[in-house]
Design brief:
42% of the residues lie in helices and 12% in strands. By secondary structure, it is an alpha/beta fold.
Length: 283
């Protein structure tokens, strides 16, 4: 597998291929939820009593997420479409990225679904099989009964509210790897970029994988937005557009591992309480 993946540039589809055989073929994942709580939250004014107890439930959900992920170690979140099959070049690339991230000590954090998410979690499992101590984590909303998380997560954390899940994917990450995806991936990409730009989170690296897929958008950002003055040159200093896993990992090491003094296998100073849903970071 590694020899095949080392020439990732030749495996990636061109712009023309994106209209043909390299199209994603999977179905939407995580679109529905058996719990109507979030649509009710966004459906306008409700009774005072209902909104008061909903705020309490949201608070409990945040605390549960904080406790579940507190001890999983430094993470890198991988975003991308659920619709790519395991034979697609982008799936293969995401799997290689998951493996390489695990090999340098990062917990691989995804939405826990199929496609790119599965590929990154699967790559982490590949690294675990070779001795890596990193964890493979999935976070998503409560799923419909016919949908299951991918089989490559060590821990899957479900949330009732979509925005709580988005907080968790950002809060524990020291870098973001953005694979090709749809509206959800764009939302996650630009939310991370906005949080970095406005100083709500630290200046973590953002890696866009797939030059053919992201190239036009990246050109628009550089040439239209930057020239118009709607963003500043420093807003893009930690962005990297690449097809190369080696270049992506070097960028993450330079802008996350070194500046934040992350170390592989750093001992925990506090003991997790399992009755609070805390995890000790061991598989």
């Amino acid at each position: 597998m590694s020899s095949q993946l080392s020439s990732s540039q030749t495996l990636l589809p061109s712009v023309d291929d994106l209209q043909g055989v390299a199209r994603a073929e999977g179905q939407p994942w995580g679109k529905g939820t058996p719990n109507p709580a979030e649509p009710l939250l966004l459906s306008g004014p409700r009774s005072r009593r209902e909104e008061f107890f909903r705020v309490l439930r949201i608070s409990v959900e945040f605390i549960r997420g904080f406790r579940a992920l507190h001890f999983v170690g430094p993470c890198v979140t991988v975003f991308g479409s659920a619709r790519f099959s395991e034979t697609h070049p982008y799936y293969i690339l995401a799997r290689e990225m998951g493996k390489r991230l695990a090999n340098i000590g990062f917990t691989v954090l995804t939405g826990g679904g199929p496609g790119i998410m599965e590929a990154a979690n699967r790559g982490c499992r590949d690294a675990q099989a070779e001795g890596a101590q990193a964890m493979s984590i999935g976070c998503n909303i409560e799923l419909p009964h016919e949908q299951k998380p991918n089989p490559y997560v060590d821990k899957f954390v479900e949330f009732r509210y979509f925005f709580v899940r988005k907080v968790m994917l950002v809060k524990y990450s020291y870098a973001f790897v953005v694979m090709p995806g749809g509206f959800g991936t764009l939302d996650e990409l630009f939310e991370a970029a906005t949080l970095i730009q406005t100083g709500k989170i630290q200046s973590f690296p953002v890696v866009l994988m797939g030059k053919a897929y992201w190239g036009d958008m990246f050109t628009f950002i550089q040439e239209r937005m930057l020239r118009a003055g709607t963003i500043s040159p420093e807003d893009l200093k930690l962005f990297l557009l690449t097809d190369s896993p080696e270049e992506a990992i070097a960028h993450i090491e330079a802008h996350a591992v070194t500046p934040f003094k992350l170390s592989r296998g750093k001992p925990q100073t506090k003991r997790p309480f399992f009755w609070l849903g805390e995890h000790n970071g061991k598989r």
